[in-house]
C-alpha cells in the first residue's frame, strides 16, 4: 500500500504592517489619497465658500462705514467704528417699513398658493389617470427650460388690462405656476409605497383624503424644500414687481432699494445702500436657517423614482 505524500507546508502571510507589503500610493492614508481629497474636495469647497462669503462680508462691513472709508484708495477692510447711522438713514429716506409689509404679503400669499398648486398638480400626475398626462408632464419640463423674462411683456399686457397694476394680486398672479416644485414633488410621489394608498382606497378614502391624510404628512421634507425655494424666489423677485408697480407705497424691498438709490443723490453714499441691502437680506437668511435642514432630505427623497 502506498503512503500518501505529506502536504507541502503553507507559508505564513506577510505581516500587514511590515515595510514593502504595500505598494506606493495604496492605503487609506497614502499621500496620493490625501492629495486627491484636497484637490477634489477641500480646495473647491474653500474656493466656493470664499466666492459666496466674501461679497456678503464686504457688504456687511461696508454698511458700518462712512463715505470716506469706502471711496478711498486705501483698502480698509474693517470699519473704524460700528456706526448704525447708515441703517437709520436707509430706513428714513424711504418707507422701509411699508416695503417690508408688502414683501411679506406678496411672499406669503404667493409662496402658499404656489406650494398648494404644486402639490395638487404633482398628485394628479402620479395617482390620477387622465388623457395626455405625459404630454402635460413634458410641457412642465419644457417650462423649466424657458426663462421667466420671456413672459414679462405678455404678462404685463394681460395684468394691466385686468387692472392689476399697483396691486398685490397683480404681483402674485403671473408667477403662481412653479414647474420646479411640481417636478420635484412628482418625483418624490413616485417613490411612495402604493400599498398604503391602495389600503386607504379599499377603506373608502377618496383622492382628497388620501392626499392630505397620507401623501402630505409623509412628504413633509420635500414639501418644505419646495416651500423654501419658493419663499426665497418670491422674496428676491425684482423684475416683475419693478415692471408692474409704480407707486412707492406698493413696492417690495428689492424694488425699494432702487428707490433708495434714486433718492440718495450723493454718489459716495454706498454705506446707505449696503445697509439697505443687509436689511433686505436678513429676513430671508433667518427663514433659510430655520428650514435648511429639510433641503438635503427633500432633494434626496425626490431624486429617486420607484
UniProtKB/TrEMBL annotation:
Residues 1-30 are annotated as: Disordered. Belongs to the binding-protein-dependent transport system permease family. Its main location: membrane. Keywords: Cell membrane, Membrane, Transmembrane, Transmembrane helix, Transport. Residues 100-291 form the ABC transmembrane type-1 domain. CDD domains: TM_PBP2. It comes from the Bacteria. PANTHER family: ABC TRANSPORTER PERMEASE PROTEIN MG189-RELATED-RELATED, SN-GLYCEROL-3-PHOSPHATE TRANSPORT INTEGRAL MEMBRANE PROTEIN ABC TRANSPORTER UGPE-RELATED. Residues 1-15 have a biased composition (Low complexity). The keyword Membrane applies. It is a multi-pass membrane protein. Pfam families: BPD_transp_1. This is Carbohydrate ABC transporter permease. The keyword Transmembrane applies. It is found in: Cell membrane. The chain crosses the membrane at residues 39-61, 99-128, 135-156, 168-185, 211-232, 272-291.
Amino acid at each position: 500500500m502506498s503512503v500518501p505524500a505529506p502536504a507541502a507546508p503553507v507559508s505564513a502571510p506577510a505581516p500587514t504592517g511590515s515595510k514593502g507589503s504595500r505598494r506606493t500610493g495604496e492605503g487609506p492614508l497614502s499621500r496620493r489619497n490625501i492629495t486627491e481629497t484636497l484637490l477634489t474636495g477641500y480646495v473647491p469647497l474653500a474656493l466656493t465658500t470664499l466666492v459666496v462669503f466674501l461679497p456678503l462680508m464686504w457688504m456687511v462691513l461696508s454698511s458700518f462705514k462712512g463715505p470716506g472709508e469706502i471711496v478711498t484708495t486705501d483698502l480698509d477692510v474693517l470699519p473704524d467704528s460700528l456706526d448704525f447711522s447708515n441703517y437709520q438713514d436707509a430706513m428714513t429716506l424711504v418707507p422701509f417699513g411699508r416695503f417690508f409689509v408688502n414683501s411679506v404679503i406678496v411672499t406669503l400669499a404667493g409662496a402658499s398658493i404656489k406650494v398648494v398648486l404644486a402639490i395638487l398638480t404633482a398628485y394628479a400626475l402620479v395617482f390620477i389617470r387622465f388623457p395626455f398626462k405625459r404630454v402635460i408632464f413634458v410641457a412642465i419640463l419644457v417650462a423649466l427650460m424657458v426663462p421667466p423674462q420671456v413672459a414679462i411683456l405678455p404678462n404685463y399686457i394681460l395684468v394691466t388690462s385686468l387692472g392689476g397694476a399697483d396691486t398685490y394680486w397683480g404681483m402674485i398672479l403671473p408667477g403662481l405656476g412653479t414647474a420646479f416644485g411640481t417636478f420635484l414633488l412628482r418625483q418624490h410621489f413616485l417613490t411612495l409605497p402604493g400599498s398604503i394608498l391602495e389600503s386607504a382606497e379599499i377603506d373608502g378614502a377618496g383622492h382628497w383624503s388620501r392626499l392630505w391624510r397620507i401623501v402630505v404628512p409623509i412628504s413633509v421634507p420635500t414639501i418644505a424644500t419646495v416651500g423654501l425655494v419658493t419663499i426665497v424666489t418670491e422674496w428676491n423677485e425684482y423684475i416683475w414687481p419693478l415692471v408692474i408697480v409704480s407707486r412707492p407705497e406698493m413696492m417690495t424691498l428689492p424694488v425699494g432699494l432702487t428707490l433708495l438709490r434714486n433718492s440718495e443723490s450723493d454718489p459716495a453714499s454706498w454705506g446707505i445702500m449696503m445697509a439697505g441691502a443687509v436689511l433686505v437680506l436678513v429676513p430671508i437668511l433667518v427663514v433659510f436657517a430655520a428650514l435648511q435642514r429639510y433641503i438635503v432630505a427633500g432633494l434626496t427623497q425626490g431624486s429617486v423614482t420607484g
